[in-house]
Amino acid sequence: MKAHWWKALGIILVLYSIVMGFLGKVPALWVLHETIRNLYFHVTMWFAMMTLLTISLGYSIAYLRGFKREYDVIATEAANVAMMFGAVGIVTGMAWANFTWGEPWPNDPKLNGVAVGMIAYIAYFILRASIDEQSKRGRIAAVYNIFAYVMFMVFVNALPRMADDSMHPGQAGNPGFGGYDLDSGMRAVFYPAVIGWILMGVWLVNVRKRMRELEFKFLQNELD
Amino acid sequence: MLYKRFLALVLSVFASAIAMAQDAAADKPQMADAFRADGKIYVVVTVLSLVFVGLAVYLVMIDRKISKLEKQAGIKK
């Protein structure tokens, strides 16, 4: 009996964040008004994405120690699902920015950093697709994945923090989370939402990985 | 003459008090309090919850389908 409880937990936590995200009390803030609730839906996408990228990195490193094919599949699919969350994060962020900052793509270091970081991962998929031989592809892609991860984190989490013109919280000497701008009522929704979306992401990776294994098995049988 | 001045003073005090009251009201960020008080927001919450539950159920079905295929392929018994 395989444990499915964490999948149910993911659904329950996200559902909780949808209900409490609309009905819960939020502080009245200038510029943001009710859109502060987007924190539960937009920011959680990035938290889920970065968690999945970290999982991808972990499996790439694990692959390099022993070259177990399964680890390569998990690393790829984790990066794949992470890109999906990133795409949703960008689109939701553009919608939010349009109504609060006045334009969908203000020249904000965080936005430009994310664009560069995601291109680094697109290069990862192109690199994979261009190598036919499986073990060679796995090795080169795993090494590149370490690079891509470092680049992403530098462009998204380090450089915008040093720039002094970013509007995102946690930049230019602003405290991020844990500072004054997230009250306890919002924390009670935000953190469960983050965990819920991470679990949903891991579930998607799990499904995609098993699909790949089936495909592999199918192709193997065809060759035999 | 005097009472006219007095009236003007009283009126101006009232006017400024009303103006200040309006300023105070305008001084708070606008929030959708009425929308929540009227209960209409529950409709939105219900719709969004149904959308998410629908997608979740779909994912459960995909998960089960893959489990079935895994059994057939002999990956898992």
Compact summary:
With 224 residues, chain A is an all-alpha fold. Chain A starts with a helix and ends with a helix.
Overview of this structure, please?
The complex is a heterodimer of chains A (224) and B (77). Chain A is built from six helices and no strands. Chain A is mainly alpha-helical. Chain B folds into two domains: 30 residues; 47 residues. Chain B is built from three helices and no strands. Chain B is rod-shaped. The model of chain B has no long low-confidence stretch (mean pLDDT 79). Classes of the chains: A mainly alpha (224), B mainly alpha (77). Chains A and B meet through helix 1 and helix 6 of A and helix 3 of B.
Low-confidence stretches of chain B: none
**Structural class given helices, strands, pairing of chain A?**
mainly alpha
Q: Rg of chain A to the nearest angstrom?
A: 19 Å
Quickly count the domains of chain A: 1
C-alpha end-to-end distance of chain B: 104 Å
Share in helix of chain A: over 70%
Number of helices of chain B: 3
Largest protein-protein interface: A-B, 25 and 25 residues
- Helix-strand makeup class of chain B: mainly alpha
Beta-strand content bin of chain B:
under 5%
Largest sheet of chain A, in brief, is: none
Instruction: Report the count of strand segments of chain B.
Output: 0
Helix content range of chain B: over 70%
Order of helices and strands of chain A: HHHHHH
Round the Cα radius of gyration of chain B to an integer and report it.
Answer: 32 Å
Q: How many structural domains are formed by the residues of chain B?
A: 2
Oligomer: heterodimer
| Total number of strands of chain A | 0
Distance between the termini of chain A: 31 Å
The largest sheet of chain B is: none
